[in-house]
TrEMBL record:
Signal peptide: none annotated. Pfam families: NAD_Gly3P_dh_C, NAD_Gly3P_dh_N. NAD(+) binds at G8, A9, G10, A11, F12, G13, A150, R265. GO terms for molecular function: glycerol-3-phosphate dehydrogenase (NAD+) activity; NAD binding. The lineage of its organism: Eukaryota, Sar, Alveolata, Perkinsozoa, Perkinsea. One of its GO terms (cellular component) is cytosol. Residues 191-305 form the Glycerol-3-phosphate dehydrogenase NAD-dependent C-terminal domain. The keyword Ion transport does not apply. This is Glycerol-3-phosphate dehydrogenase [NAD(+)]. It comes from Perkinsus olseni. One of its GO terms (biological process) is carbohydrate metabolic process. Keywords: NAD, Oxidoreductase.
Length: 345
């Protein structure tokens, strides 16, 4: 029987642990987290109290899941590792693994986090690039994405996910879990999966703001414009992977459920901003106001790295969200430039 380790005891890490524990091919799941109170609650009662507001009360299988705050409690070898650490904390965590000489042993290391961060002020990095930056970590890197909110995973609701990085053993471990279906997408690259996951969060942030400020027709148009502009940053060499990914569950499926499923923190934050602007008029919005809203960190990193000239339509829409422009004028300006091919003014 396989042994799996999940790094990160937040909502998704907890849900992924539960999903892996349901797999008939897995005998033990280790869940690593930093909060001693959370870890004790999981081991004693099978409940992660910190994520109850997000996903409700779901009892984990304490027969198969063992939670810990210490890397020393984890086995020296495992079948696969799952990374569910927030992107903004991922570099520090990966360096912690490297400094501890943690023995990945070339085994699959599957990233489940979505976002990018600006490193040292001038490097835009995905988790795969952070992993490569930590030269002491020797693992087979992969990326997992799809319409898979934590609550659905905990409830074993059927979902289809995209796995990039080419390892059939991990796919089979996941397929043996009740509710998880892994699609066959050989053309997908890790780069496309991670980039799209990050850009999806930015689109969701804008969707929530535009839908609440204007209407759903406009919000759909804005997402179309932003997705095309942001995914285009990957470059033409990734064009085939770009379209292949959009047709996958990790692309179109994830974008749909995030914008319309009612559970996205990014969409919720956008709506909160719109409601505040409607009550108080244009108000300045702090793009780092909520640490768990990954789209805020991603859009701030994008604007710092690329600047408004490289992503003009996205920049104009975000200026509206920030209270720097009238919402209707900001959106109309971006859509007009997209449809007519005009310069942003």
């Amino acid at each position: 029987m396989a042994t799996c380790i999940v790094f990160g005891a937040g909502a998704f890490g907890t849900a992924m642990s539960a999903a892996l524990a349901r797999s008939s091919a897995i005998g033990r799941v280790y869940l690593y987290g930093r909060d001693r109170k959370v870890i004790d609650g999981i081991n004693r009662y099978g409940i992660n109290e910190r994520v109850i507001p997000q996903v409700g009360t779901h009892r984990l299988s304490t027969d198969k899941i063992l939670a810990t705050t210490s890397l020393h409690d984890l086995p020296q070898t495992a079948s696969s590792y799952f990374h569910a650490i927030p992107v903004q904390q991922s570099m520090a965590f990966l360096r912690h693994l490297e400094d501890a000489h943690f023995p990945l042993g070339g085994c699959p290391y599957v990233n489940c986090s979505k976002g990018v961060m600006l490193y040292e002020g001038n490097k835009l990095m995905t988790v795969s690039q952070m992993f490569g930056h930590c030269l002491g970590l020797k693992g087979h890197y992969m990326a997992l994405s799809g319409p898979s909110f934590a609550q659905g995973l905990l409830e074993a609701a059927p979902c289809v996910m995209s796995l990039a990085g080419g390892n059939g053993e991990v796919a089979e471990l996941l397929r043996a879990s009740q509710g998880i279906f892994i699609e066959d997408t050989p053309k997908l690259t890790v780069e496309a999966v991670e980039w799209a996951g990050a850009m999806k969060n930015v689109c969701a942030l804008a969707y929530g703001w535009v839908e609440a400020s204007l209407n759903c027709n406009t919000a759909a148009a804005v997402v179309t414009v932003m997705w095309r502009e942001l995914f285009g940053l990957l470059g033409r060499e990734d064009e085939s992977s770009r379209y292949s990914f959009f047709e996958s569950s990790g692309g179109l499926g994830d974008l749909l459920v995030t914008c319309s499923g009612g559970k996205s923190r990014n969409v919720g934050y956008g709506r909160d901003v719109a409601e505040a602007q409607q009550r108080e008029g244009p108000v300045a919005t702090d793009l780092t106001a909520r640490p768990t809203v990954e789209g805020l960190h991603t859009v701030k990193a994008l604007l710092s790295f690329y600047g408004p000239d490289r992503i003009p339509r996205t920049s104009r829409i975000i200026e509206g969200l920030q209270g720097l422009r009238d919402p209707a004028a900001a959106v109309a300006n971006a859509l007009r430039a997209y449809v007519w091919g005009l310069s942003i003014c």
